[in-house]
Amino acid sequence: MSMAVTRTKAVDIKARQRNREEWKRGLPIYAMILPGFIFFIVFKYVPMGGIMIAFQNYDPFDGFLQSAWVGFDNFQKLFHDPDFWKIFRNTLLISALNLFLFFPVPIIVSLLLNEVRVKWFKKGAQTLLYVPHFLSWVVVVSITVLLFSTQDGGINNMLSTWGYERMEVMTNPSYFRIVYLLQVVWKEAGWSAIIFLAALAAVDPTLYEAATMDGASRLRQIWHINLPALRSTIIILFILRLGHVMDTGFEHILLLQNSLNIDVSEVFDTYVYRVGILQAEFSYTTAVGLFKALIGLGLVYLANRASRKIGEEGVY
What we know:
By secondary structure, the chain is mostly helical. The protein has two domains: 1-71; 82-309, MetI-like fold, CATH 1.10.3720.10. It is built from 16 helices and two strands. The two termini are 47 Å apart.
């Protein structure tokens, strides 16, 4: 009996020693993870406690605990706001542009870059496509204004010189969504293609060799090898993007917004800024933010379930 106990203790000691050694080996990795972990705790999870003011008539002087509770009054105010459906429609339309028109562009860019065999040209093209990502939206919108300003924009001056009418790009509401989409594509398509290029780099080269021996063209190889290799990545990124379906990019839209196009450019992000920050209605705009988050959460849940039903892993 004592021999068995001694053997068990020896096994426990060895297991603890092994765990300590594994912990020591993993310390550099844990150290790299720690800043990101702290970031999410401080800036993502701790602020979630402020959701309670969506159900209060929050007063900064009274604080979270002393402010009067009003239940769902702020949500009722949101749904009865005469501008609610206009803002909701604008937000969904711009999100649809991001989901169904912009989202495929990085995939196409990655497929095209993957087909380039000249290394120096491929690297140069990648660099040119990545650079716009590092420009702020202020710079991007300023470039657009310089080019399309009605009075002294470079392109409008050119059109006027050639005898054509000037284009009211920045003030005409019908151009707003087109300008928004083109700017997003120019700025983010190359950068967003990186993850798809990484997935394509993991494809076994022997698959291309076998397809070539079977007489498959480059288009056939893209369709039967590259796209299936990207399918899981596409589904996961699409699900994650659905979580931000109500987030349309505050800074970008605010810079493009003016009094002439506000009927098509007012979205929840700019509405929260205008009402919550400028008019200090903190409880009301917190309710708006919670409404947006719940929609995103619901879409992610439904999309994840759908992905699992078609045999994909999903996000969780």
